[in-house]
Amino acid sequence: MGASKFEKIKVVEIERVKLIDVDSGEEIILSQRPRSYCWFCNRTIKGKEFQLRVDFNDLDINESPTLDAELREEISPGRFKHSKEEQFHHTYEQYDELKGEWRYYFHFEDITWQLFIKKTVNMTKQLQARIIS
Fold it and tell me: Could you tell me the pTM of the whole model?
């Protein structure tokens, strides 16, 4: 067995995630599934149904989460399935130099949507971990 040492590790728990529509100011509250790093919501935009997912397990080079979107098809009133033909993944945060802000730009056909992500951190825990090398 190799050498071991103890390191302090900070764990941040995310309590709430919102998408904020830049144009309207609307705040969209997302929900988290058990044991998931992702937060979800369903949105109808110009008659098209999307599932939006903020993925904190897939961070970009600035350590911002990825915004994923999948088009859903209505198979009966109120029931949807994910469209295999139209999937959108990995929308990364981009810097708007004119406004001096980071935001997500969502584009599909005639839909253009600019979003911010706002997260509420519940608490930070400090743990001690034994690192074995």
Answer: 0.73
